[in-house]
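hey
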C-alpha cells in the first residue's frame, strides 16, 4: 500500500463496460480508494461494481464527459488522483512508476501518460495513435476540467506537468461496430461543442476535413503499416469528423437563435436522453 502521507484515489467513469471494467479495476487495486461513476449501465457493469469489495460505485446521469469527470473528481477524498477510462489498464511497470512518483519529492502536480492503443487484443503501432497521451495522474487541488469542452475534456493545471515513462494500455477498439458507434457519438458531441463555441457549418470543411483526417493518419502517420486494422481505424476516425460537420449543419437548422455562450442549452437539447461514458 501507498504510505498514508500520500494516498491515492483511482477514479473511473463508465457505461456498459462489462468485460473490460474488470481488468481496469484489478489493475488499480493498489490504490487506497477506488471510485467508479456509472451512468446507469444496463449490461451488468453496475452490478459487478456494486458487489466489488474494493469499489465505491456512484450512479450519475451522463451529460457530457467534462461534467461526468468533474463530478467524479469531487468524490475523491485524496489529493492524488489516478483517473482512468474503463477500457484502460495500468501495467505492473506503470504501477511501480506511479507509486514511486507520488511518494517522491518531485514538484510536478500533474503527469501525462502515453497510451498503447489496443486493436482488440493486439497493439496498433501507427494510424495516428503512436504519440497519443493524456493527463491521468494529478493532484486534485491543482486542477480543474475546462468547462468549454464536452468531449476530449481538457485539464487545466496550476503547476508543473511532466510525463511518465511507462505506457497505459488502452483497449479502445473492441470490435468494428463498437468503435464505429463510439466515433459517431464523439462526432455528435463535438458538433454540439462547436455550436456552443460559435463555430459555423461550412460545406468545404465537410468535404476537406474528413478527407484530410484519413490521409493524415493513414499516410503521414503511417496507418498503412497497420494493414487492414489501419484502414479501419483511419476510416472510422475520419467518419467521426464527417459526422461532426453533418451534425453541426443539422443543429444550425433546429436552433434558430443559439446562445453560444451557454453550453448547457445545447447539451440539454441533444443529450437529455443520452448516456455515454467510455
Amino acid at each position: 500500500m501507498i504510505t498514508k502521507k500520500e494516498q491515492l484515489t483511482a477514479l473511473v467513469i463508465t457505461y456498459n463496460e462489462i468485460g473490460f471494467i474488470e481488468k481496469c479495476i484489478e489493475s488499480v487495486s493498489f490504490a487506497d480508494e477506488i471510485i467508479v461513476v456509472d451512468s446507469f449501465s444496463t449490461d451488468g457493469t453496475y452490478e459487478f461494481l456494486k458487489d466489488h469489495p474494493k469499489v465505491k460505485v456512484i450512479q450519475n446521469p451522463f451529460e457530457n464527459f467534462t461534467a461526468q469527470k468533474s463530478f467524479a473528481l469531487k468524490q475523491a477524498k485524496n489529493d492524488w488522483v489516478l483517473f482512468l477510462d474503463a477500457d484502460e489498464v495500468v501495467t505492473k511497470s506503470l504501477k511501480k512508476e506511479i507509486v514511486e512518483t507520488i511518494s517522491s519529492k518531485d514538484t510536478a502536480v500533474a503527469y501525462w501518460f502515453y497510451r498503447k492503443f489496443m486493436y482488440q487484443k493486439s497493439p496498433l503501432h501507427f494510424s495516428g495513435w503512436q504519440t497519443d497521451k493524456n493527463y491521468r495522474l494529478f493532484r486534485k487541488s491543482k486542477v480543474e476540467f475546462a468547462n468549454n469542452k464536452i468531449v476530449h475534456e481538457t485539464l487545466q493545471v496550476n503547476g508543473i506537468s511532466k510525463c511518465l515513462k511507462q505506457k497505459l494500455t488502452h483497449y479502445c477498439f473492441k470490435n468494428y461496430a463498437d468503435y464505429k458507434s463510439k466515433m459517431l457519438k464523439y462526432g455528435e458531441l463535438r458538433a454540439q461543442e462547436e455550436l456552443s463555441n460559435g463555430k459555423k457549418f461550412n460545406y468545404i470543411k465537410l468535404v476537406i476535413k474528413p478527407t484530410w483526417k484519413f490521409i493524415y493518419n493513414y499516410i503521414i502517420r503511417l496507418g498503412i503499416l497497420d494493414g487492414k486494422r489501419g484502414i479501419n481505424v483511419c476510416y472510422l476516425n475520419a467518419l467521426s469528423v464527417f459526422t461532426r460537420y453533418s451534425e453541426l449543419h443539422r443543429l444550425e437548422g433546429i436552433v434558430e437563435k443559439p446562445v453560444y455562450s451557454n453550453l448547457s442549452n445545447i447539451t440539454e437539447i441533444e443529450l437529455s436522453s443520452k448516456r455515454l461514458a467510455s
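DSSP finds eight helices and twelve strands in the chain. Residues 223 and 230 are 5 Å apart (CA to CA).
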